[in-house]
Structure formats: structure tokens, C-alpha cells
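Now for a typical sample entry:
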Amino acid sequence: MVYAIQQLILNLKIADKMAVLNLMDDSQEDPLIGGASPNNVPQNMTALRNYVTGLNPCSFQTTSRPLDRPEMGAASSRWPSPSVAYGVISISCDKDPETLINQLSYEWARFGSYLKIKELQAVETITPFQIYFVYSLTHCQTLIDEQREILRIAQDKMHQEDYFVTRDLPRRWGYCFLLLCSLRMNVPRIPKHSEPVIMLKLPASIQTCRKVLHLEVDKRQLDFITHLVQYAKKAGIYAQWWGPHAHPTEGVDWNSLPGDIKRAAKFAVKTTNYNASMTSTNVHGFLDLNDIIHVCKPNGSVVKLLTGRECLTSLFKFKDSSSLIAEVHQQVPLGPVSLVYPNTPEGEKLMTSLAKQLAAFAIGYLGDQKIDQTFINNFLKTYINPQLIHEAPQCEWDPDPPRTIRVSRRLCYRCIRRTGMVERCGPPI
């Protein structure tokens, strides 16, 4: 093992001359070894144990191989060796850590060992809030970026309303820098509601449906984030971004009131049903859904301001007037938009037509709903790619249920080249 650590340091120096191998133990005042030369690695295992977390008699593999069962033959070689010890090391360098660790793992594997890589946590975090009724199969990084934007908008509005001044809160909260927050997708842990063993045997898709968003923040900013989330919920910012059904709430523990625990259990069950009844599809051709359009009266007075997300969730509906689109997620402007909708035959047909030719579907559908033509033109100009608007007259709209569109053969072939999906083009004219 000493030789392997020495070779590890040599390869580190080849990749980065300033690299340092840190065999860390919190109880040691000077945990650095091998910073200058591999010869600094202690040759004695007792001395080396003082620098490596986990190198103690209890860390050795206790489940020995079944040597008393020779009938297993070669299968016994797959059992872990009883003389293997697992230590924890940390690496600090000036180069890209991903590239360096990949090179390091390759060299380390040449000696018959492997590295299990885990990123170190920079700050102490806590997950004070859980967000229910948000589709759990959405791209996680998209949700994280949208959550940070929600907190930023809440901070700006609170600063404009002098929220911190009127409530005797620190004024610096109105303009201080928001530390990075993150979201975890985990099954909620609810006291007095044990986790059945049979749940662990369910398929991965069902397991994912049981997960909800957990907001992970820096412990030092807990009070600040609590005010931001509560304000964003009350001001309707969460409803504007993730739909009116999105419900952020504080987590429960054994000290929570019985009513809060029962409510959390009810939310967990309903969120599972929500995720299981929804599906999503990526649609190309949108611009920036964060832009705002005006809803005006015939005399020109502004009635309301709507974003692209609010337009999509409120304008397109089923025959029973329920919303066709439950959630709208877009990570970057001009990027693909993830539309979450009910997994029903009617919803599938409508979303297939919408994804086939976005502009033609919007013109035909909104025209059937007797929506003002000026608003339709503003909607197309603000949120839809001009190329799709230019190609829309070449499509044929069928107003009868299930309200489909047919595209010309030339556009059909162009759609195949652009998206690589034949089924979205439908039957050509």
C-alpha cells in the first residue's frame, strides 16, 4: 500500500507539478504528507494510519471469502479480499479536477486498484423546504436554474417593496449576493410513516414518481432563504413558473405538530399520483419564455401582463376546459422547452400536433377559441421562432376533434432533418 501511494504521488506530479496529496484525518494538526516527495510517505503502517481516515483495525474487510467451500470454484475469487483497507484522500490542484482525476484513475488502475470519486462539499447545507407537485422527471439542472431565478425575482421585489425595512430585518438582505442553492430529488421522510420494504423492489419509474424536490441551501443563509421562499409562495412567483399547483412547504420532523405530519403524508401521496399521471415532451421552436406580453382591451388599456409560461398553461385547454399544459420548463432562451401534460389519449394527440408545427397549431387553436387576432400576433412574434411562423401557411388545420394539423411534404422532410423524428411530421399533404 505504501508503494501504491508513492506511485500515486509520482503520477500526480507528472500531471500537475503543484499537486498535493492530502491523506486527511481531522484529529491531526498536520495532515499533509508527500507534498514534496513520495519519500515522505511513512513506511510504517502504524504511522501511516495516523494520517489516513479509516485505516484502523475495524476498517479492514471483515466478511472473508468462503474458503471453506471449495465447491464454489472460481466464484470465490469475486469476493473481496479480507486484507483490503479503504482510506479517504483529498486532492488539491490548479488544473481542471475532472481531467486530473481521470488521468489519476487510469494510472491507479494499472496497479490493480480503483478510485471511488466523490466531490467534497464546500459549505454546510440544510434542506429546510420541500416542493410538492413538480414533475420529478424534469431535467434537474433546469429546475435548479429556475429555482435560483425564482429566488432572485423574490429578492428584487422584496427590495422594491421595502420588505426588509418594514419588518425590522437586516437591510443587506435586499442586495446581498445569493449563495448557490441546489435541489435534491428524494423520497420525503415523514415521521410515523415507515418505509415499506416492498417499496424498494418497485421499478425505477415508480420509485421516481415518489420523489419530491428538496431545496438545499447554505446553513448560514437559512433565515434569509426562508423569507425568500415564503414571499415567493405568497406573491405567486412559484405559481407563475411551475404552475398554481406547485407547493413549497417546510419539512417535518418528530417535533412537528401531528396535523403537519398528516398533511405532509397526504401531500406525498398526491405528489406520487401527480407524477404517475403526467408525462413530458421537448418542443423546439420557442424563443425566450421569460419575456412579457400585454393583454389589452379594445381601447388599448393594459389589463394584465403575461409571461410565455402563463400563456401556455392558460390558453391551451382540453374539451372540459382543464389546462392542457401543467408545467413549462426552459433552461436557456431559444433552447428546447419541456412541456408537462396529462398522460391521456387526448393530451397525447394535442401535444403531437403542437410539436409537429408549433406556429400552425397556435394559429389554428387560438383562432378557434375566438381570441383577439392582435394578441395572437403578439404571442407568435414574442415566443415562436420566425421560421415556423413563415412556414405555418403551408400547413392545414383540422378544427374537428382531436384538432390536428397536416404539413406539406416539403416541410415534412425539413422537419425530419431538423429534429430527426419522423413521427412528429405526421401524414404529408
Remarks:
- The chain has a mean pLDDT of 78.
- The longest strand covers residues 125-132.
- The chain has three domains: 2-67+80-109, 125-278, 284-419.
- The chain is about 40% helix and 15% strand.
